[in-house]
Amino acid sequence: MQSDENKVAVEKNKKRKLKTPAQISALEKFYIEHKYPTEEMKLELAEELGLTEKQVSGWFCHRRLKDKRLLKDEACTNGRQDISSGVIQDRGSGLGQDSCGSTKHGDYRHLDPKEVESRGRYSNDILAADMAHERRNPYSENVSSMDDTSSESSSSLQDQDSYGADPSRYLMPNGALPPINPKGAIKMRYKPSGYLKVKGEIENPAITAVKKLLGRNYREDGPLLGIEFDPIPPGAFESQMDPVQEPYYNANPALPNSPESYAVKRQPSLSSRYDLYNTKFSSQDSHMEGPDPSDFQDNKSRHNSKQRLPLCSYTNPVPRRNSSLDLYEHSTGEASAYNSNKNHRVGTKHGVEGMKSDSASNHSDHYEGIARTPTDWMMHGYDNVNLTNVQRSEYVKSKPSNSISNACVSMETKDRGPTARMEKKSSGDRKARRQYDDSDELGMLSNEIMFAQRGVDLPLQHNVKQDSVAEMQPRKSQRCMSVHCACVSSFWCPTLIDNFLVDYLLAFIFMIEL
DNA sequence: TTGTGTTTTATTGCCTCC
DNA sequence: GGAGGCAATAAAACACAA
Known about the structure:
- By secondary structure, the chain is an all-alpha fold.
- The protein has 25 helices and no strands.
- The protein has helices spanning 2-14, 21-33, 39-49, 53-85, 96-101, 113-116, 124-136, 140-146, 152-162, 182-188, 194-202, 205-214, 260-288, 302-308, 321-332, 341-344, 349-366, 374-381, 389-397, 403-415, 421-424, 430-457, 466-472, 478-489, 499-513.
- It is found in: Nucleus.
- Residues 12-71 bind DNA.
């Protein structure tokens, strides 16, 4: 009898048991803080979680292996991408070949394992793993809320539970990166994230080819593709006047005012958002510029990587189309995409689904009429490419259900102000509108300054063709015109336009040319 | 519902370090 | 030699598509 009981007990113990969400959450949290916990830590943790020390040790061991595996996969992926593109990317794939070749005893071998400890805060692959965990774990949200009372370290855990790939998650409240543990910094070099990561993912052969074709003409800090801009309207930057009372420059007086003016007017506000965005990402980029990146979004899981990778291709030349939809949704709805972790989540189920619903319900409205964003301006102005509404709808229909597009959504929402539909909305939106206007003041100012600088420093051959601009600009004030010009100028203004957008634009143009 | 693929957990053996 | 860690392996649990 006793032997039978023992047998049963052994069987019971032998049969693996899934750890509860709370346990996993706690373990993950601890793992972020201490990649290599001491025996005391393990004991304490085991006691708290009702596990054995052996289980805890094993979990940490497997967790490290998981990290390593994900890192290796990511590195291999990047390495293949580099090969396929024929260009050695100076960012985003440093680890690749080295780690691909040898895995014995891990890629951390060259580092003191202890030095690797506590790097988890910056370890994006952990986030990816957590994202994978979330996919599997329907209780994640509960766990997340459960940890609400936790202290600082738990905040990261909570973020984990949300599994947002938002690169700003680790930013300090003031938007700056938290102080970097030198030890962590070492590891950081291997873990690109945020913009750099996304960029590395999407920088497919098409973009590479475009860059190759452009050669010297492609300057990240210079005019784009030789697009000609019209000269700055006289007095465009004169003292700001009441947009209602003041006369305004109108290159084409025949054009009536239209709601687009509102949308266009909003564009400058994006600069402030862009600045913030770029601040975040550029800060991260500064850490990513190292020889070796991998990336948390890619690290999500092998399974998801397989699902995601094919979507990195530009089957949809304008994946950003959904973004404006998203923007509309968020600008009028509850949470803005800019602040939403979910919208930064790359390749997450929710994000994709959200996009689908957006496209399905709103795309027809969003692409009626003329271009409303700087990107649209470019599309109209460049090579006289006139996209019909139908075509645009098709862009939407071919909604990119991929991580990149999802990332674009979040970026897009930063790029674009509210669409013209905002103008049509009821007065109930005026409150939100005022908020935009507030930001517009700052944004316009910065844009105008930027534009003025450009007017001095750069030749004017890069002015957008006036027709295209006039066609799209309902002008209500001189200031609006200056804003319009500033928006156009943002395409070659390095501080306003993200390289990410440039890449997409290049890819789009490349598609057109093909 | 089922088959397949992925992830997680547990176990074992080997290696390195002290 | 013991402790700790890594890698390999098996099996259970899970996710997802057909």
